[in-house]
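Predict structure. Chain length: 116.
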Amino acid sequence: QVQLVESGGGLVQPGGSLRLSCAASGFTFSRYAMSWYRQTPAKEREFIARIFDAGGSTIYADSVKGRFTISRDNSKNTVYLQMNSLKPEDTAVYYCRVVVSTVPAWGQGTQVTVSS
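Prediction complete.
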């Protein structure tokens, strides 16, 4: 059974940094692209970043390009999202996602709040 568990969220001041983690189990992690999304009550879930399988190529939403970095450690079955220069508009619940055999799986999410 695919399981994703996010951690690392919290309260941070504008301009600060956080690193989110997503621990994965139930599938061969290194073979799958991993993604981060975020959602606020006012918006639909928004794509943030994706890292492809062992090759590690990445893509980002324009809203976070240059500030956020996605990475993965295949030895730990974990994907990370390093978030720098955080803005109040980055406040959201952040989710990781994987699609295994055409079925998307999501974690429970971790809250990130950017506020002074």
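Summary: The mean pLDDT is 95.
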